[in-house]
Every structure is written in C-alpha cells, then in structure tokens.
Design brief:
6 strands, single chain, 3-stranded mixed beta sheet, 217 residues, alpha+beta, elongated
Length: 217
C-alpha cells in the first residue's frame, strides 16, 4: 500500500524574487519587458502647436516686469547700504567729538604755552604726542589771520573798520576752532574788520582831495 506525503501536490511557499532591472546582467541588453513598460515622452503642453505672437508678447511683458522688480530691489538695497554707512560714520564722528571736546582746553593750554615759548623739555614731547594722536583721529584746528570771515565756522567777538581789508576778514584769532570732517566741535572765536569806506584810496592810490599841483600854479 502506497501512502502519499501530506505535502505532496501542494506548492512550496517561500520568497519570490523578481528581477526588475532594465538591463540584463548576462547579455547587457535592454530587456523587452522593460522597453515596453517605458513611459512615452509627454507631448508639449500646447499639443505641439506653434507659439503665437500674442504669447511671445505676453512673455516679454512678464520678463520686463520681473526685470523692473529686480532693478527696484537693487536700488532699495543700494540706498539702504549707503544709509547704513552714512549712519555709521555719523555715530563714529559723534562719539569721537564727545571725547575730543573734553581735550580742547588742554590743547588751548598747549597753544598758549607754545605762543609764549614755554613748550620745552618733556612737556613739549607730551604735547606733540597728544596733538599727533588727536590729528590721527581726525581733529583739525582752523582759524588764521587774514582769512575771509565765515559765520558758519567763525564766531565774531570783536568788530571794527579797517582800510587794510577789502572784505570782512579775520584780523585776530582769539581762540582757534576745531572740527572733525564737516562737524564743528568749536567755532573759531575771532576779531573781524570791515572795509572802512571813509579811508578807501582812489584809483591812483592818493587820498581824496590830494593833488599834485602846487597852490597858485
């Protein structure tokens, strides 16, 4: 009597491996199934119809608008960068001005000592070093005799008339002025003189009423 095995006639269960590679590793050719399953290239969105002049004009309009947007953004950025740089310089000058303003009385004492020939020895070296440092920081001293009077940078403490000037001019500097760039820390305090109309000579250089002829000639 022949007995059959209980597993006989039944399929064996187990993992099924399917090779989905498009290239056959043995032949190196594209498999027929993979070639057939490859998606066909998509047709153009407009169905292959030629682009019309109206569409080209619309695209050009859109391109011009985008270009104008980019140019506007660039201009705004450039203005912002310049404003930040200008504010940075202004803050720096303001901070320097506050510090250097405290040193102006010391610089005045140094100037007076120099005028009286008292700037000698170690005091002279210290004074010159201080002036060099303040100069590197941008501090500029101004105000000279004979220069035209400018109310923006000068403060007139004395006023007179003079036949030696042809315009309102500085005839004496009572206290020098200081500035950093365009920022005035202290105006120059000066004595000014206007031309004296009564003492002005004529074109020949002689005083009014003078004559070369002797009386009675």
């Amino acid at each position: 009597m022949v007995t059959s095995s209980p597993n006989e006639g039944e399929e064996k269960e187990g993992p099924v491996i399917r090779d989905k590679r498009r290239i056959d590793p043995e032949t190196g050719e594209v498999r027929a199934q993979a070639a057939e399953s490859s998606p066909a290239p998509e047709a153009p969105a407009n169905g292959g119809a030629p682009v019309t002049d109206e569409e080209i004009s619309s695209l050009r309009t859109q391109l011009a608008e985008r270009l104008a947007d980019l140019q506007r953004l660039k201009a705004e950025y450039d203005n912002y960068r310049k404003r930040v740089e200008r504010d940075r310089v202004a803050v720096r000058e303001q901070a320097l001005g506050q510090v250097l303003s405290e040193l102006l009385p010391v610089l005045d004492d140094i100037g007076r000592a120099r005028d009286h020939e008292e700037l000698t020895g170690g005091f002279k070296s210290v004074a010159e070093s201080l002036e060099a440092v303040t100069g590197k920081l941008g501090l500029e001293r101004y105000g000279e005799k004979g220069e035209p009077f400018d109310p923006v940078v000068h403060e007139a403490l004395m006023h007179s008339l003079s036949a030696e000037v042809t315009e309102t001019s500085v005839i004496d500097v009572l206290q020098p002025g200081y500035r950093i760039g365009e920022r005035i820390l202290r105006p120059a305090r000066v004595a000014v003189a206007d031309p004296d109309p009564d003492a002005a000579p004529d074109a020949s250089g002689a005083e009014p009423g003078d004559t070369d002829d002797e009386p009675g000639e």
